[in-house]
Design brief:
The protein is an alpha+beta fold. The protein has 4 helices and 4 strands; from the N terminus they run E-E-E-E-H-H-H-H.
Length: 126
């Protein structure tokens, strides 16, 4: 009779034991079936999350491209009216752009020092 032991489970041709308790074939098969089902479920969740992430990425890129195209279609005067230039359009469409005056304002003061109703700092007219 061939037998071996692994992590507290003793296997041999006649019977299986786990921590001194004898297991029958049906119990082992039921446990194996449950483990396979759980593994398949986790795998399906990972695949679903990967698909959702890919769809989200595609939608974000489409929005980025549409923003870029719309801003590029504006003339220079209109862009100047809204406070940007053509060189800033790629950053704006990628969502990485912060106006210089706003960036300086955000780093120079803490939130507690700002007025509660301040969304943008006041513009200074020269």
């Amino acid at each position: 009779m061939r037998a071996f032991q692994n992590e507290g489970i003793r296997f041999d041709n006649a019977a299986w034991t786990l921590k001194g308790k004898q297991l029958d074939t049906r119990t082992v098969e039921a446990e194996a079936h449950q483990m396979r089902a759980e593994l398949a479920g986790r795998f399906a969740n990972k695949i679903g999350q990967a698909v959702r992430d890919a769809i989200g990425w595609v939608l974000a890129k489409r929005t980025q491209r549409q923003t870029y195209e719309e801003l590029m279609s504006l003339d220079d005067r209109t862009l100047a009216d809204i406070g940007i230039n053509r060189g800033q359009i790629p950053q704006i469409s990628a969502g990485m752009w912060v106006p210089d005056r706003r960036a300086n304002w955000l780093t120079s003061e803490t939130a507690a020092q700002r007025p509660a109703n301040a969304v943008n700092p006041p513009r200074r007219v020269a």
